[in-house]
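> call design_seq(struct)
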């Protein structure tokens, strides 16, 4: 059977649900995890670093188009993922006894390669999957033994198939620690649980990137709110001459707020997205409380929720302040426009008055012009009549002048009137 042609993105969209799959894990297993904040150039450099590592161990490198890659490099397994803002590296070493954090998985990776990785470390963590010992769990013993004396946070997860513990602290060497006690997990289930624990840590830190931004924006917003209050108070009693200066202050304030919003909008939106992802990962753990320990949800809600509320509050204040400044700007602009329209009306009235005066003056000038033309033309007629009389023509010069005066006056008036019509309405002629 011949099907119609595939959509160009059919295969890519279908495979999206299989993107970034977890690695199967069997206890005992040690993992080391790095999440590096990267820009576009560093993302490309991260792919080049993975290719370099693969070449060192004679493994086929990934193509530049892939977003995730897994390879067995002999002494360890590599799991590499590219995300929008960061790159994740996971190193997996199976086996090991004793202290699960004594010799971490990253020790098997070339040190010079690790130190040359592009980007900034956001999360560095060691995780260990070990078989749970028979009997009850003593959180204090685990905290003092493997978490440096810190009280761990954790819960029974996946309907009791495993127990997850961490203290959310950075230990010596710059790595945090996660312990996963295996009661009855399958390899794929253990891999999913380990991936969720590390993603919770990652998304928690990425969400908190917005907190310093919110803290820095708070004083700026307070100063802008005070400036807006001063401007609006001045608008109540402002004279006409003061309004342009007030409008200029409002315009500058609006530009500052818009610039601040453009710089923080993405960070606050990303923080909400990361926080939602973290909450989903915690939901997927299906936690069951261990007496004496905080669950992951309790710990993160107590510490992270206030930070996210601060970021949302700052974002709301920015938007509200922007709208208030826009309203004040429209109000003052309306006042300035009304004043300008009033001035324009007064100017038009003045122009109309001057036009009427010019019309009257023009009529007077036209009358004087007719009189002058009549005077000079009738004088010429008189001189001509005297000349004719001198050669014997029977004519009276005074009578000729008297007869010519009304004729010349009428012709002069008609001529001047025609010229004015031609000048005022040239399209008709």
């Amino acid at each position: 059977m011949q099907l119609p042609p595939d959509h160009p993105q059919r295969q890519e969209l279908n495979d999206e649900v299989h993107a970034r799959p977890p690695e199967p894990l069997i206890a005992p297993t040690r993992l080391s995890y790095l999440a590096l904040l990267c820009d576009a150039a560093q993302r490309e450099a991260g792919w080049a670093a993975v290719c370099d590592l693969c070449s060192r161990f004679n493994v086929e490198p990934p193509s530049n188009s892939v977003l995730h890659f897994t390879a067995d490099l002999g002494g360890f397994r590599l799991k590499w993922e590219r995300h929008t803002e960061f790159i994740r590296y996971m190193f997996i070493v199976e086996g090991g006894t004793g202290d699960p954090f004594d010799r971490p998985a990253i020790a098997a990776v070339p040190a010079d390669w690790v130190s040359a990785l592009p980007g900034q470390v956001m999360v560095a963590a060691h995780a260990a999957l070990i078989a749970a010992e028979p009997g009850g769990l003593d959180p204090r013993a685990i905290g003092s033994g493997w978490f440096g004396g810190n009280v761990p946070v954790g819960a029974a997860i996946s309907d009791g198939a495993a127990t997850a513990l961490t203290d959310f602290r950075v230990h010596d060497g710059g790595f945090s620690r996660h312990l996963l006690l295996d009661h009855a997990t399958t390899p794929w289930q253990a891999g999913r649980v380990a991936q969720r624990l590390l993603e919770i840590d990652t998304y928690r830190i990425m969400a908190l990137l917005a907190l310093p931004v919110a803290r820095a924006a708070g004083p700026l917003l307070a100063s802008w709110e005070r400036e807006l209050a001063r401007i609006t108070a001045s608008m109540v009693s402002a004279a006409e001459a003061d309004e342009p200066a007030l409008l200029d202050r409002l315009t500058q304030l609006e530009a500052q707020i818009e610039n601040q919003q453009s710089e923080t909008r993405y960070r606050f939106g990303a923080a909400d997205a990361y926080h939602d992802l973290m909450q989903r990962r915690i939901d997927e753990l299906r936690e069951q409380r261990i007496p004496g320990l905080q669950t992951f949800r309790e710990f993160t809600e107590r510490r992270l929720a206030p930070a996210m509320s601060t970021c949302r509050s700052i974002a709301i204040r920015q938007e509200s302040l922007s709208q208030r400044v826009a309203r004040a700007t429209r109000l003052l602009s309306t006042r300035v426009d009304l004043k300008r329209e009033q001035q324009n009306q007064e100017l038009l009235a003045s122009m109309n008055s001057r036009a009427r005066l010019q019309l009257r003056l023009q009529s007077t000038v036209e009358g004087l012009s007719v009189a002058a033309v009549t005077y000079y033309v009738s004088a010429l007629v008189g001189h001509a009549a005297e000349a004719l009389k001198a050669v014997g023509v029977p004519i009276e010069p005074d009578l000729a002048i008297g007869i010519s005066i009304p004729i010349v006056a009428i012709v002069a008036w008609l001529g001047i009137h025609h010229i004015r019509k031609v000048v005022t309405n040239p399209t008709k002629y």
